[in-house]
Specification:
The protein is mostly helical. It is built from 20 helices and two strands. The radius of gyration is 21 Å and the shape is globular.
Length: 485
């Protein structure tokens, strides 16, 4: 019951927020933070203090399809990540949104997105996950379109069209699982057993449809274009989309369906492995190249996300325990690093109004804390040892080498190339900020407010801690991967 409460609490209380018609900032922020922390406490109670897997069934659609919440080790990992980052994202948003209109509406949708994301993380079957996956589109659309300016409205419509197209593709593949699977419930190793010879090609084709459908939110090429467009949303929304909500829900859903519905054994050595692998490998390089070319600060980080999401998909496409370990490690580490990078972007825009990379020259001297955080996260994202990005990329490269053959060669090659490009598009910014003179040199040293600063520093500290003490997390994730493959 506590599991259901954790999902419903932010959805229901978020929907109720506009009813209070908060006119002052402080009561609204107290309400939002209280709901966020209460939800996080319930999530962590389930994740750390409940023995074994937790299941709660709430709706019988058919005899074989039962909608349920189920918290296993993979769900605990994603729930913990969401519960850690969401309160910090909310604290950051309090300061940023002081200059935006309609804050009551914004934080209402913000809270509901929290509950829906937890619904995806704790879904016990493919139908429940699909329902919450599509609800995520509905509750994040108003966030992307917040303020209803023409450019944000156009971005929201693009996001909606892409999401609906992905929903249709995923639905077709999910129907095949329900028709041929032993159960709709997520089961390690998959539910497609005792298949006839004629069923195998059709189900592999169904997996490709599901991968592409879920891959819309994971921004895999060529279905990525909505994500750069959505960068016009307020920075707390962008940070939310990239770190813990939409795109991470996308890669999480791909992992769920791959290893807990279709099963790695069905997909190995077939087009159902090669096509997702090839798309992920191409997207890694494509996103990195586009980030190098992009001059707008936030959109450069968006293309970085496009690239790094496919690190996770690449690891999953290897269909091995090692590959899944690397994928899940990068899912966690990238969420922390990218949250920080987007937070820096929002802080710079708030304090200086600058949005383009050439305009960041010399800002390290004016905003030393902000750009120290940026430099640290950039080094981690590049994969400089012993920082967290190195651990996940090393795990992915090791998995590629273990796979051998063309898959291994391609995996290692794209990871090395992307690391070089990442150093170029991130460390170049840090160099300009710290070692080039500021054109506006007369300005005094200044930083964003304490709420933004605290959020950035807290997540950076978490990244540093996981960099230096990665053993327990790696061991936990390795156990998850071993049980799933």
């Amino acid at each position: 019951m506590l599991l259901l409460s954790a999902v419903l609490c932010p959805i229901v209380l978020g929907a109720c927020l506009p009813l209070f018609r908060f006119r002052r900032r402080l009561p609204r922020e107290i309400y939002t933070l209280a709901v966020t922390l209460l939800t996080g406490a319930m999530v962590l109670r389930n994740a750390f203090f409940t023995q074994g897997d937790v299941t709660f069934s709430f709706l019988h659609l058919t005899e074989n399809v039962v909608c349920s919440f189920h918290l296993d080790s993979l769900g605990r990992l994603f729930c913990t990540l969401v519960a850690f980052l969401w309160p910090l994202a909310s604290l950051y948003a309090f300061e940023y949104m002081e200059h935006e209109k309609s804050p009551n509406s914004f934080f209402a949708w913000y809270l509901m997105a929290y509950g829906v994301t937890l619904g995806i993380a704790t879904a016990g079957d493919i139908v429940t996950m699909y329902i919450f996956y599509e609800l995520l589109t509905l509750v994040t659309l108003p966030l992307v379109m917040h303020g209803m300016t023409p450019v944000r409205t156009a971005a929201g419509i693009k996001y909606l069209y892409y999401s609906l197209f992905g929903a249709a593709l995923a639905f077709a593949g999910i129907m095949l699982v329900l028709a041929r699977g032993s159960s709709a419930a997520f089961t390690p190793g998959g539910v497609l057993t005792d298949l006839s010879r004629d069923d195998v090609p059709l189900l592999r084709f169904g997996y490709i449809l599901v991968f592409l459908g879920l891959g819309v939110k994971a921004a895999v090429f060529p279905l990525h274009a909505w994500l750069p467009a959505a960068s016009v949303a307020p920075t707390p929304v962008t940070s939310l989309l990239h770190a813990v909500a939409v795109v991470k829900a996308g890669v999480f859903a791909v992992i769920r369906v791959t290893f807990y519905s279709f099963g790695a054994e069905l997909l190995r050595h077939s087009a159902a492995q090669w096509i997702p692998f090839a798309l992920a490998a191409f997207t890694i390089v494509f996103g990195s190249v586009m980030a190098v070319r992009e001059k707008h600060f936030k959109r450069r980080l968006v293309y970085s996300t496009v690239s790094n999401l496919s690190y996770i998909l690449l690891g999953a496409a290897l269909l091995s325990a090692q590959g899944l370990t690397g994928a899940l490690l990068h899912m966690v580490y990238h969420a922390l690093m990218k949250f920080t990078l987007f937070s820096v972007c929002g802080a710079v825009t708030t304090v200086t109004g600058r949005e383009r990379v050439p305009e960041l020259t010399g800002l390290g001297k004016r905003m030393p804390v902000t750009f120290a955080v940026f430099l640290f996260s950039s080094l981690a994202m590049t994969g400089i040892p012993p920082l967290s990005g190195f651990h996940s990329k090393w795990a992915l490269a090791s998995a590629g080498i273990a796979a051998g053959g063309p898959i291994g060669i391609i995996s290692v090659s794209v990871l090395i190339l992307s690391a070089i490009l990442t150093a170029g598009y991130l460390l170049f910014i840090a160099y300009r900020a710290w070692f080039s003179p500021d054109a506006d040199s007369g300005c005094e040293r200044t930083e964003c407010g304490w709420r933004m600063t605290f959020s950035m520093l807290a997540v950076s500290l978490a990244t540093l801690s996981l960099s230096l003490f990665s053993g327990p997390l790696t061991a936990f994730i390795s156990t998850i991967a071993a049980g799933a493959v």
